[in-house]
Recover the amino acids of this structure.
């Protein structure tokens, strides 16, 4: 959110210079009472200007959270703004065939009839992915009776750590195995690249020991297999480079994911 700074300039009016005339009346000095009245009026004027500035600033801040049309009514504007949530044309989500952390073959089409929350994770990530993992765990816990109709899926973006053991270890470390419908998918590089391309995910993996830089999106797919909404997870970084997000924002993200998923369940 952008906060605008408003500067109120002083306008100084000054009479034109001229020499004094003999007919001019002698200067008069204000009485103590008059000075007090002038001071009071000055204070009131300054307060009025301050009120106007605060009012304009407040309206400017509110206007920065413009709600996109087509979002689920159940998702508050402040939550949609935090998630950078936007609707997408309800077109069929691209299918893929990969293997999950249990070694089971999985296709996206096999989840038809359920809402899908789709992410793209690095199996060795220490940056955004662990934080989003907590958001997914929180969302699953909040779903309640809708849990059986929502599936959480992630596709591996690390071309150097492709094994089932890699995605299984990540899932266990970040408590994603607590989600009954969790699937962390991996497979041969060409199959993964096809999935990345289909969902507009860019991947930069220069070496097995370097950080993998990739697009961070969360896709919401309805029960008919159509893409409906897109979110954009973000994190902050400490001075030492560690990623973090305040607990309240992690909770708000989890709440938002659950609300969107519930809206797709109906």
């Amino acid at each position: 959110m952008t906060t605008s700074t408003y500067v109120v300039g002083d306008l100084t009016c000054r009479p034109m210079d001229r020499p004094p005339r003999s007919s001019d009346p002698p200067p008069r000095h204000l009485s103590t009472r008059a000075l007090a009245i002038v001071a009071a009026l000055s204070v009131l004027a300054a307060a009025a200007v301050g009120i106007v500035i605060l009012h304009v600033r407040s309206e400017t801040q509110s206007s920065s959270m413009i709600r996109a049309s087509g979002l689920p009514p159940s998702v508050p504007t402040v939550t949609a703004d935090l998630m950078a949530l936007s609707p997408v044309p309800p077109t069929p989500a691209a299918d893929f065939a990969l293997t999950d952390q249990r070694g089971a073959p999985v296709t996206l089409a096999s989840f038809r009839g359920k809402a899908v929350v789709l992410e793209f994770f690095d199996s060795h990530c220490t940056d955004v992915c662990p934080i989003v993992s907590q958001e997914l765990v929180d969302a699953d816990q909040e779903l309640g009776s809708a849990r059986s109709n929502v599936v959480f899926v992630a596709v591996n973006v690390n071309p150097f750590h492709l094994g089932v053991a890699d995605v299984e270890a990540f899932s266990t470390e970040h408590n994603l195995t607590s989600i009954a419908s969790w699937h962390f998918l991996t497979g041969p590089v060409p199959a993964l690249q096809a999935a990345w391309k289909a969902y507009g995910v860019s991947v930069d993996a220069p070496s097995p020991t370097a950080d993998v830089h990739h697009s961070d999106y969360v896709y919401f797919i309805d029960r008919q297999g159509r893409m409906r909404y897109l979110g954009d997870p973000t994190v902050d970084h400490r001075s030492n480079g560690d990623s973090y997000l305040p607990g309240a924002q992690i909770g708000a993200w989890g709440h938002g994911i659950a609300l969107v998923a519930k809206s797709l369940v109906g």
Summary: Residues 15 and 24 are 15 Å apart (CA to CA). Confidence is low (pLDDT under 50) at residues 1-32, 34-63. The radius of gyration is 29 Å. The first strand starts at residue 86 and ends at 87.
